[in-house]
Specification:
Length: about 350
């Protein structure tokens, strides 16, 4: 592109908000919704913002964890444009932005999806039934938890499921990683960039991780292994101070001081709705193509329900944007509407 390239797009570049009617009176819901978004994590909210701004009046069904996983953490420092924000505040701002443009938010849980459509039928825990010409599945995933005392209370206060997100907060500190697979070792190695000492606690006396990762971890001077051991409790008043470890061979328990506990014992996609309906990979994640399409035309998926690689708020939000844009094109085609740049 030449340096004197100048396109007069007549853009409104002032700092004033665009002239949109944000206080439009509530209209009754259509018999068949344009699009239903299932899930209220970053993928769901960004899909809602984009479909709402495309005048599709999306209905978003939020599920039991409003805001998704990001609402479970404290400080988020890697979401572009926001230098530092608390997880619940980031989730609340996403919701506010989605509602501002006309997203209808339903605090309910989807119990059934009839993927034979369009229109698709969605049933909820409170007994409601909706039909929609397009669905965006954004039900996310859940890190598998240890299920020990102190874990839930200290999540975001030293207990973490994401070294990429939280490793930075542990500069010069002592951390424990729980697990023996590829993720535990990869994240353990990543944590050595920050932490002074990383102890990997594993319930067996050998690792499940690949040979190269094992070698790298064993050669890293900051990494130590605690074999045949499990975490029995995570302790601390306002933040993690220690863990109680139990040696499964000797039965002995010890309280070990540490600043952080990173849990890597697996990640579970929230896929129950889609079993036997949409194609999944061997780990149960929905299979999508580059246009975020699932195996059923009209059903799109975004975020961690279809992505076990990146697992970040920003990547999930980006995938929600892509799913929304493709859903809009799909609906335009369904209704035989002209779509700029799409048809002829
Ligand atoms: C403790 C913690 C800290 C993190 N810190 C960071 C960080 O600092 N930076 C970062 O980028 N990422 C971070 N992450 C990762 C980030 O939160 C996730 O990548 C992101 O939230 C995934 O977004 P998602 O929309 O795909 O799904 P999720 O956030 O998992 O949301 C899924 C949504 O689907 C809903 N749902 C599920 N089933 C149903 C159903 N049947 N009906 C209706 N709704 C349903 C849930 O209620 C939830 O609202 C962190 C994760 C955790 C757990």
């Amino acid at each position: 592109m030449s340096s004197n390239f100048n396109l007069d797009l007549n853009l409104n570049l002032s700092s004033e908000a665009p002239d949109v009617d944000l206080e439009a009176p509530a209209e009754p819901r259509p018999a068949i919704e344009n699009v239903i978004i299932i899930g209220s994590g970053p993928a769901g909210w960004s899909a809602a913002i984009y479909t709402a701004r495309a005048n599709l009046r999306p209905l978003l069904i939020a599920g039991n964890e409003v805001g998704g996983q990001i609402a479970l953490t404290t400080e988020v420092e890697n979401y572009p444009g926001l230098e530092s924000i608390q997880g619940p505040e980031l989730a609340a701002q996403m919701q506010k932005q989605a509602e501002r443009f006309g997203t209808e938010v339903l605090l309910d849980y989807v119990t059934e999806l009839d993927a034979d459509g369009p229109p698709f039928t969605v049933r909820t825990a409170s007994g409601k039934e909706f039909r929609a010409n397009a669905i965006i599945a954004a039900t996310g995933a859940s890190p598998r938890r240890l299920g020990v005392a102190g874990e839930e209370r200290l999540t975001g206060r030293g207990v973490s499921y994401c070294a990429t997100c939280d490793g930075f907060f542990f500069r010069g500190k002592d951390v424990i990683v729980v697990g023996g697979g590829d993720s535990a070792l990869q994240e353990g190695l990543f944590l050595t960039k920050f932490a002074a000492r990383v102890r990997i606690v594993h319930r067996r006396d050998q690792l499940r991780a690949g040979a190269t990762l094992q070698r790298r971890a064993q050669e890293n001077p900051k990494i130590e292994f605690v074999w045949n051991s499990v975490v029995e409790s995570i302790n601390g008043e306002k933040k993690v101070e220690s863990v109680r470890l139990k040696n499964l061979v000797s039965g002995e328990t010890t309280d070990t001081a540490t600043d952080g506990v990173f849990v890597y014992i697996g990640h579970l996609p929230n896929n129950q709705l889609f079993l036997d309906k949409l194609a999944m990979d061997e780990q149960g994640y929905l299979i999508t193509d580059k246009l975020m399409r699932t195996s059923a035309p009209g059903i799109f998926a975004a975020g961690e329900i279809q992505d076990h690689r990146f697992k970040q708020a920003a990547t999930s939000a980006g995938q929600g944007v892509a799913a929304a844009m493709e859903a809009e094109k799909y609906l335009a085609e369904l209704e035989d509407r002209a779509y700029p740049g799409h048809k002829g």
